[in-house]
Amino acid sequence: MIFSKSCEYGLQAVLYISLHPGKLVGLKEMAANLSVPAPYLSKILQMLAKRRILRSVKGPGGGFEINPELKNPTLADIVGAIEGMEIFDRCGIGLKFCTDENPCPIHEKYKAFREEIRKMLSEKTIQEYGEEIKASGTKVSLK
Question: Can you spell out the DSSP letters for 8-42?
Fold first, then answer.
């Protein structure tokens, strides 16, 4: 995949949270169900809370939820919060000076691929993906 492990875990965690609307989801529950080390997941979730994608509530009964103040957050918002939106503009083989005017050997095909990924992650809200997961019975967690 084109995303870092942190981004993949962030996407998985947000989708997991989306399956529990109106409920705060605890870190330990998520870490266990997603088979992600809790300290690592904690850092990712705190990053998403700092960027106001998630709302974090501390203490007994605390946990995380999709920030209810956000209007229609998408998976692209999660990627942007963790990786930065520049990920959708980077060269596919890592060249620093790859542009439309100075393309690398895979520039045109990779540019189309990046745009398709950006479109796919932006076309539906996190809530819509959560509803699709519930309806299809797709497993997001190991349990």
Answer: HHHHHHHHHHHTSTTS-B-HHHHHHHHT--HHHHH
| Phi then psi dihedrals of residue 17, to 5 deg | -60, -40
Query: What is the reported pTM?
Result: 0.88
Nearest C-alpha neighbor of 46 from the set 34, 58, 32, 37: 58
CA 99 from centre of chain: 27
In whole angstroms, what is the distance from residue 134 CA to residue 120 CA? 19
Block residue for tokens 């705190």: 46
- What domains can be seen in the chain, in order of their start residue? 5-136 (1.10.10.10)
Digit-by-digit pLDDT tens for the chain (143 residues) are 578 999 999 999 999 999 998 899 999 999 999 999 999 999 999 999 999 999 999 988 899 999 999 888 999 999 999 999 888 888 999 899 999 999 999 999 999 999 999 999 999 999 999 899 989 888 777 65
